What we know:
By secondary structure, the chain is of the alpha/beta class. It has a domain at 66-222: 3-Layer(aba) Sandwich (Rossmann fold). Helices cover 45% and strands 13% of the residues. The protein has 8 helices and 6 strands. The strands form 2 sheets. The chain has a 4-stranded parallel sheet, sandwiched between helices. Strands 1-2 form a two-stranded parallel ribbon. Helix 3 (85-113) links the parallel strand 3 (67-70) and strand 4 (116-121). The longest helix has 29 residues, at 85-113. The radius of gyration is 17 Å and the shape is globular. It starts with 6 loop residues before the first helix and ends in an 8-residue tail after the last strand. 42% of the residues are buried.
Amino acid sequence: MTGGNRGIGLAIATAFLAQGDRVAVTYRSSVDGLPEGLFPVQCDVTDAAAVDAAFTAVEQELGPVQVLVSNAGITDDGLLMRMSEESFTSVVDANLTAAYRVAKRASRAMLKARGGRMIFVSSVVGLTGSAGQVNYAASKSGLVGLARSVARELGSRGITANVVAPGFVDTDMTRALPDARRAEILGQVPLGRYAGVEEIAAAVTWLGSDGAGYVTGAVIPVDGGLGMGH
């Protein structure tokens, strides 16, 4: 999986590992504190050659990728009138074009095996929009179109493609928000709390399981009801 060395990504990787799967995670600069058993691979997902090299390393160490989790992503928030073109394109490249890169590379082995799972980690923001996040929301919304197109294109080969759309999650980033902002956010969430990273991981591992074999092209919100109706 991409972006598996911290936060939601690490929780997902750990959940797959706990159920006995062999798990590789990509990282850009640091892998300090990774649980034993994960196979770390350095990879810049904005570089197609680096993506290919990372897959080759994983295939040599663990075998063909059967479940792909595309999770790596960045933010660079700002109001539309002040957002530079570089800010927009860099976020789309890291969050959306990178998902295309890893899906394309993963499809090789999945097509040969006539089966596989692709899971793309989006965001409630991709469905509802968010002021100051034109770039991020566009990239996360784009994952839905990408996944559903993959689902239609590769479904006859037993390959599923789905999206998980987390809402506000209890991470270091949200804990650092001012109390007033945290209260404002919670006021919008019907369940009145943040998600735990393990709750996002549970949805992703289920989509990667045999039990989800007839689920494809779905967008599964794990957002406490924040985005319902979208």
